Amino acid sequence: MLTLISFSHYEGMMRWDLGSIYAKSPLIFITIVYHPASDRYGLDYEYKPINLLKNEQSDPEYLKINPMGYVPALVDGDMVLADSFAIILYLEEKYPKHPLLPSDLAKKAINFQAANIVSSSIQPLLRLPVMHYIGVNVGEDAKIQWVHKHAAKGFAALEILLKDHAGKYATGDEIFLADVFLAPQIIGFPERFNFDMSDYPLLSRLGEAYKQVPAIQNALPENQPDFPSSRYHLIVST
Ligand SMILES: N[C@@H](CCC(=O)N[C@@H](CS)C(=O)NCC(=O)O)C(=O)O
């Protein structure tokens, strides 16, 4: 049995409801790929939420799993692995039945590049500690400007990169690695951050296509076991 350790949706969504800026977790990268309800990528796993707002990622027990103190992490028997990219590539080789990387070398390279734009050049800049630092040292208003600036830069690069490769999805008519990283970055982002997507027609179209994919629907925060049943209760309880 695989154990996936990732952030608690309960706390993550609580912050969104309260209007704070919160970047969507790489957790969703993994759940999209390996959600048990997904026909294509289904793998059974146990899910252990980590409460980031209670700083559980810095708990000494968790630091034994990932000394970086980030989620997600994966435990597979004796194998302990952290970082979405490493986890996905590990599972890709261990369970090659439904590959997320195309065999065509050029297409594979585009997938790596697009996934890396999200995981290295967008997501880390929108992380909770970065937002916290900006809020404290620059000002609350600067957070949204920061998010817009760095999302716009990454989104513009993705539009150019994918324009000659996209089909129904980022690099053709099948879901590949690039889509697994793009979906969580695009879905919900414009609403959450009041971000105008009109300069990014390709990404907008991909976002709509992703929302129709059952595995992606299953991976949305509201479909996770720790998502609160009542947002009202959630807000009051804070
Ligand atoms: N490169 C890592 C980044 C992981 C990451 O940024 N995780 C965030 C959640 S979105 C986290 O654990 N934040 C806790 C913290 O910053 O203290 C990956 O892709 O897995």
TrEMBL record:
GO MF annotation terms: glutathione transferase activity; maleylacetoacetate isomerase activity
GO biological process entries: glutathione metabolic process; L-phenylalanine catabolic process
Coiled-coil spans in chain: none
Domain GST C-terminal: 104-229
CDD domains: GST_C_Zeta (cd03191)
UniProt GO cellular component terms: cytoplasm
Cited InterPro entries: Glutathione-S-Trfase_C-like, Glutathione-S-Trfase_C_sf, Glutathione_S-Trfase, Glutathione_S-Trfase_N, GST_C, GST_Zeta, GST_Zeta_C, Thioredoxin-like_sf
Domain GST N-terminal: 42-99
PANTHER family referenced in this protein's UniProt entry, alphabetically: GLUTATHIONE TRANSFERASE, MALEYLACETOACETATE ISOMERASE
Membership in a protein family: Belongs to the GST superfamily. Zeta family.
UniProt protein name: Glutathione transferase
